Amino acid sequence: MKSITINGSQRESVGKKATKALRNAGQVPCVLYGGKEAVHFSAEEKSFKPLVFTPDVFTATIEINGTKYSAVLQDIQFHPVTDRILHVDFYQIFEDKELTMEIPVRLTGTAKGITLGGALRHNLRKLRVKALPANLPDFIEADVTRLEIGNKLYVTELKNDNYSLLHPDNTVVAQVRMSRNAAKAAAESTDDATAEA
Question: Could you tell me the pTM of the whole model?
Answer without folding.
Answer: 0.76
